[in-house]
Amino acid sequence: MCLSKEKTFPADEHFTRLLCEKTKAVEQTILSLLPEEAGMQRIIMEAMTYSVGAGGKRLRPLLIQESAAMFGWTGPELPFFMAAMEMIHTYSLVHDDLPAMDNDLFRRGKKTTHAVYGEDMGILAGDALLNYAYETAIAGCTAASHPERGIAALSVLAKKAGIYGMIGGQVIDVRPDAAGSVSDQKRLEEIYLLKTGALLEASLMIGALLAGAGRESVRALEASGRALGMAFQIQDDILDVTGVEEELGKPLHSDERNNKLTYVSLYGMERAKSEVSRLTAHAVDMLEEAEGDGAFLKQLFLSMIRRRK
Ligand code: GRG
After folding, report:
1. What share of residues in the chain are helix, strand, coil (percent, to 5)?
2. In angstroms, what is the span from residue 223 Cα to ligand 1's centroid?
3. What is the pLDDT of residues 44-81, one digit of tens each?
4. Atom of ligand 1 nearest to the CA of 101
5. Which of 100, 111, 274, 285 is the most buried (most CB within 10 A)?
């Protein structure tokens, strides 16, 4: 489950161990904030737990935690926002796997939610995770010592997950015909910035907002997340071609099968690889524009270039 397998990051064993520990702790936090499986509707809670518990890198909650840590912040509302973010990420994956979208039966080495619970529960589990994410983030605002920071973070969460963020990107991805006459290059960039980049931007911003960081730092972290998101998605395209199925936890070549426009199909593998490096370096530069100590985040960003899942 850890992002930090030794063969993934041979360069820095200390970082590898630290990341693994942090990922496990983040996972515990997230699972502890899921609803109790009880009542006549308990099947929905079970499907939510199955979906969130299926593993994953926990990258987005980790980014929230670590961007807050940059400014020395460990407030009581952080776990709520970290869990809310992972719930939104998970809902997007559950819905993306549905027959009406990518129709995938495996993710993270496990059966997808609809494959286990049926299509009806797949739809409802995604809906439930989205709704419960906001219930959880609002509980975070209530727990916050600075409620106005909580509201600012909640607002970023809602906007970046919505029609001007992740959902917007998914819309252009699944209905390119409705996007108007734009070049493939422009359309691809917009999809990546929104579908993948928006939640990474939001994660870095939310940690900083909860920590009470200044406007310039929040803006720098947004730019950093934007570059990181592009790099992350291009790396995802590369792994879909060159990855190892057992490590990825899903079948290879799904983009080709679904006739998906990707960075690799549009520009070729060599350019894709050099773009990942260039964008990651830019993400680090932007990170360094923010105040605070971003040493761990910098290592995390650089490790993404070598990720194998
Ligand atoms: C259905 C509203 C809606 C949105 C779907 C996120 C998304 C949009 C679709 C999922 C498919 C996909 C390739 C999205 C791009 C973002 C991405 C690379 C997601 C996978 O994130 P990881 O690698 O996943 O962090 P884990 O499994 O580690 O949590």
Report:
1. 70, 0, 25
2. 20
3. 999 999 999 999 999 999 999 999 999 999 999 999 99
4. 1
5. 111
